[in-house]
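Bug #77: duplicate submission created two jobs. Keeping one. Sequence:
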Amino acid sequence: MKGETVVSTALAALVLLAVLAIKSKWNPADLSDAASSAEEFILNTAGIGASQVPDIAGYERLKVFHLGEYRAGLYRATPAPLVFAPGRLIIYDKADQPVFKLETLEGSKDPWSALYDFNGRNGLTVAGSRERPNYLRDLTGNKTPDIIIGQYSGGSHCCTVATIVELGKNQLTELGRIDGLDGLPFEGLEVRKLNKGAAWQCIANRPYMTACGDHFDAADVLAVYNFDGKRFEDQTSIFGNYLAEVLRDDLAKWKQEKNRTMNLLQTLAVDYAVVGQKDIGVQFFSSNLNPLIPSLQSRNVDPNACLESLESLVDQIPAANVRAQ
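Kept job's structure:
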C-alpha cells in the first residue's frame, strides 16, 4: 500500500508538471519553476496516509498519535533555539484536514506536550513497555472516545494545562480544561472511577505554598473534575467520601517517622479542612510542628508566621459533603 501511495503521488506530481508546462508554453525557465513546484508537492504529500500526518512549512514533525478515526501531529518550529520553541498540536481527519489545533511550547531537545496514555504510568508511556499506547477512553460514558492533551508552560515548578477533547464522528469538542498542574504532563493528574457510574473523574493535585517553606514543602490540594453532562468541572464537594479516604491514607503515612515532612503536615491540615474539620486540621498541624521548627529557623522562617499562613490557606478550602458510613 505504501508503494502504491508513493507511485500515485509521483503520478500526480507528473500531471502537475505537465499542466504547468503547457500553461507556460514550454518555457525552460518556467519549466524549472514547475519542476521545483512538483518536487515540493512530492515532499509535502508523500507518505501521508494512515500512519502519517502532513508537513508544515517552518516546523519539524516530532510525533504522530493514532486516534482511531483521527491522527494528531505534534510539531516544533525549526530551527529551535537553545531552550524552547513554539509548537503546534494538530488533529487531522481521514482526509488530512485539520479539525483541532492548539498552540504549544516545546523543549528544544524533548517535546513538552503529550497525550495521556491510559496504558501507561501516571499518563505517560512506560519506556520499553510492550503494551501499545492507548490515548483513547470514553471518559463521559456516552460511548464516544476522549483524549487528554497536556501542555507544559516551561516555567519552574509550573505549569501544565490538561485539555479534554471528545472525538466525535463529525466534530471534535473541548470538554474542559484543568490548569495549574505542577510540572510536566501529567504530574499531579490521575484518572479514576470514584463511583459506580459510567463516567470517569480527573483528580488534580496542586501544590499550595505558604510561609512554611518552598515548593517542596507546599500542601497538596486535591480537586476532582467530574462530567456534568456538558463539561468536566470542579465538583470536589460531591466526592467527600473519597477525600475522607485520602485523609485516612495520609494519616497512615504520617505514622511512619520518615514521612513526617512539612509537605505532608500541611497536606494533612488541608485534608481535614476539605472534609469539614478545619479546626482539627489546624490543631493537628500546630501539635506536630515542634520537630520541624529547627528546620524553619535554619531558613529564617518564623514558626508563628508559618502557622498563620497555614491557617489562612485552610480558611480558603471549601468543605466537601461526607456521608456517614
